[in-house]
Amino acid sequence: MNQLELRDLQVVYSGKNVLQVEQTSFERGKIVGIVGPSGSGKSTLLRVMSLLERPATGMMNVFGTSVHLPSLTHANGLALQRIIGFVQQKPTMFDATVFDNVALGLRYRKMDRATIQARVTEALKLVELEDAEAQRAPTLSGGEAQRVALARVLVYQPDLLFLDEPTANLDPYNVSIYERVIQAVHRQHQTTILIVSHNLQQARRLTDRCLFLHKGRIVEACDTASFFEQPQTSGLQDFLCGRMIY
Ligand SMILES: Nc1ncnc2c1ncn2[C@@H]1O[C@H](COP(=O)(O)OP(=O)(O)OP(=O)(O)O)[C@@H](O)[C@H]1O
């Protein structure tokens, strides 16, 4: 099965339903944008799909393998976790060199030194930070840190790449590097990419498909051109026009 699918997903915080998805699927090898107002559940959705958080209910089927998310243990989820690359909104840089930060996932996978060296060099070159290998990661600028965070997941060549507001707070130069990298990775590896973005132009530039999340529900999901040119619901129409929606 060439799909990533969610069914009967529900996330509840302090008695409040913050995410409720009956069914949605993502075609393998596509870039999908997730947009919606602040607090609509976008980051929660990515955290749950990255297995960092367990929902109250929900099944996820990843290319034919089905998992019951609430009961998934760390040990049972490990194989799946290893094909997922998640870059969080505010990535943590460990107090080590850029090289060691990027090598982390490969060391967990017990790869040999030569492979680690080659993969890290390649990933840093891709994000245009090959000269920063020896720099202490906490001294990086915000834009550089975001690119290192991306290199840190690209280095293990994930099948699924989840990006949460990857270019918020970056200048146009860093945004364009970041977008080029995403497109190059997608072209080369046909990675399935989900990207949360408040930058509607970016969602339009990068994605094949978009979904609109409002109050924890997927209200609209379609190809990117239709999403922006023919929004069906008043919620999405208002959102795209910059009107406050409730
Ligand atoms: N750990 C938590 N405990 C309680 N409530 C939470 C927790 N995490 C998120 N929430 C709530 O869940 C809702 C969805 O949050 P989420 O961060 O997923 O929204 P978002 O769409 O990503 O927002 P933004 O665009 O502002 O980043 C919000 O109302 C938020 O306050």
From TrEMBL:
The Gene Ontology terms for molecular function here are: ATP binding
Residues annotated as domain ABC transporter: 4-240
Question: InterPro entries this protein is in?
Answer: AAA+_ATPase (IPR003593), ABC_transporter-like_ATP-bd (IPR003439), ABC_transporter-like_CS (IPR017871), P-loop_NTPase (IPR027417), PstB-like (IPR005670)
Q: Quote the Gene3D superfamilies the UniProt record gives.
A: P-loop containing nucleotide triphosphate hydrolases (3.40.50.300)
Decide whether keyword ATP-binding is in the record: yes
CDD domains for the chain: ABC_PstB_phosphate_transporter (cd03260)
Which Pfam family, any one of them, does this sequence belong to?
ABC_tran
The entry's keywords? ATP-binding, Nucleotide-binding, Transport
**Identification of the protein by name:** Phosphate ABC transporter ATP-binding protein
